[in-house]
Amino acid sequence: ELKEEFTRILTANNPHAPQNIVRYSFKERAYKPISYVDQMAIHFSLNGNMILKDSDEGRRQSIRLSTAAEKAPVETSAVTSEETEIKDEESTGDTQAAGDEEAEGSGTAEVAEAAEAEEPPCPRMKEQKLANQFNFIERASRTLNNPMRERACQSEPTPCKNFSATANQWEIYDAYVEELQKMERSKEKEKTKVQIAKREEEKKKGRNLTSLESQSDDITKISKAAKIMERMVNQNTFDDIAQDFKYFEDASDEYRDQQGTLLPLWKFQYDKTKRLAVTAISWNPKYKDLFAVGYGSYDFMKQGQGMLLLYTMKNPSFPEYVFSSESGVMCLDFHNDHPYLMAVGFYDGNVAIYNVKKATSQPSYRSSAKSGKHTEPVWQVKWQKDDMDNNLNFFSISSDGRIVSWTLVKNELVHTDVIKLSVEGTTMQGPEGLQLQTLGCGTSFDFHKKIDYLFLVGTEEGKIYKCSKYYSSQFLDVFEAHHMAVDSVSWNPYHLKVFISCSSDWTVKIWDHTIKTPMFIYDLNSAVGDVAWSPYSSTVFAAVTTDGKAHVFDLSINKYEALCTQLVVAKKKNKITHIQFNPVYPVVIIGDEQGHVTSLKLSPNLRRMPKEKKGQEVKKGPEVEIAKLDKLLNLVREPESKA
């Protein structure tokens, strides 16, 4: 793109012509700039000596030449007549001396003279045409110049009013007294109408308008143009970051062998979320620059309101959409087929569906105590395929040990308990022979990419359960995974058997779901907050730890340690909570406990593709990625499991 050629159009304008000529306008009695400038540039001029026939000078010359031509024949005729007279006299003298014998001859001579004398005068010379000596014709033509016009317009001046007033101490005192009296009256009214006010407040809560609705109609008309202008201004402001995002490739990677780096790009922050932690991040499946961020708090002693913001990389200074909630947002997920729908889970156990198309801050659908909400915080939500009746449905997991399927039926959320997590060996004998069982606390789950009914559940006890939608009473398998809570569990996007888990016990583990023991274990020396597979390679994943570092691994290059371990958050009190790969661009976004979201670009070593061999095409696609990870797993698998 940097080598792209741009065509330039040549115009007939003279580049040396002055553009700022000013002339005095006698009409307006002021100096005015001349809009029209003569663009003609004369490259060659020659003064000739040719004269037009029709001009005055041409006529004078033609008359002069004609008169000169007339005078010349008259003079010659006069000369010839004089010569003839002299000859006649001489001839008469000769005849007289000759005698009488020659009388007859002389008679004939006289007759001849008389005949000569009677002859008419010779005709005039014809008028000569002016010959063109050089055989050259001079022609010229000129187009008419358009007449200059002056046009001006003037807007009507806005109406203005002059207001002036003087205030003395008595007037100020009276104003204060009136204000105090009004306040007393309002307090009396409030006492009498407490119940009515409460009802009105409840109604108002349901009708909370967003900033967009509360704005006047004039602003909404230009909101789209203003949004485009804001993006343009931001692109100019952060031009160096945009250039880095698009073109910069770290050249020093060639000399680092296998190590890579993360280049910080934009930082997304919002004034109202400064005291809230980033609790969830999700990229939009349709618009690859748009992502949603959920804000809440992981500290149960500091619970308050939550926020849900949608940012775009085109405008890092301000969010595209802002939603507020009474309880902290704990998790969110975009619908794959309807990218404007978001499922959200809250700290108070409720779930909700937000519609970005609707300009309201309230969710379109929300659970309640009547509709079977969770009794503990909802840690994860995931959209599923529509059910048999084409109703939208999603799953949620909570600390209360329930995994619930929510279906949208006739604009209401209907719940169905899929599984209740129970802790083995905790069954107690209750009164009257009742058996009481301690429920497990679910913290995360993930559904298989191909096998629709299969999903994994991570718990606070450190176990991972392999479950099926169709078996609610028992688990398909149990993995003794970690010693502390499982913070995240995720299937590999390419390989159908592999999944990854991370925990607060400082470890990240990679599993084959057919084998009870982990394939790879990585100790990151700090509690691991989140882990994510990359969308472009089956062997690349990234994890974030509470000490403010991001770790990027590529198993195909180095099976033992991270290719990149970089400090992203500098403050000691701050902790990183979540990380997500962009589905298209080589970018990750990282959220922290201060409410900031940082975007970072992966250097070439962190997204290295197989090298091209001479005469062979590089194979790409899911099959190649599966084979790449299988090759690594075969090195690790025990001989018994291979057999």
TrEMBL record:
Q: Which GO terms describe its biological process?
A: cilium movement; determination of left/right symmetry; outer dynein arm assembly
Primary site of residence = cytoplasm
The transmembrane segments are none
Presence of keyword Cytoplasm = yes
Q: Which InterPro entries match?
A: Dynein_IC, WD40/YVTN_repeat-like_dom_sf, WD40_repeat_dom_sf, WD40_rpt
Instruction: List where Acidic residues composition bias occurs.
Output: 82-92
Q: Which residues form a coiled coil?
A: none
GO MF annotation: an example: dynein light chain binding
Kindly give the SMART domains that the UniProt entry links to this protein. WD40
The WD repeat units are at 479-512
Give the UniProt keywords, A-Z. Cell projection, Cytoplasm, Cytoskeleton, Dynein, Microtubule, Motor protein, Repeat, WD repeat
What GO CC terms are in its UniProt record?
Answer: microtubule; outer dynein arm
Compartment(s) where it occurs, according to its Swiss-Prot or TrEMBL record: Cytoplasm, Cytoskeleton, Cilium axoneme
What are the boundaries of the region Disordered? Answer: 65-125, 185-214
* Bias-annotated ranges (Basic and acidic residues): 185-204
Binding partners and assembly: Consists of at least two heavy chains and a number of intermediate and light chains. Interacts with BICD2. Interacts with CFAP45 and CFAP52. Interacts with CFAP53.
Q: Which family does it belong to?
A: Belongs to the dynein intermediate chain family.
What this protein is reported to do is described as: Part of the dynein complex of respiratory cilia.
Name recorded for this polypeptide: Dynein axonemal intermediate chain 1
Query: What is the species of this protein?
Result: Eudyptes sclateri
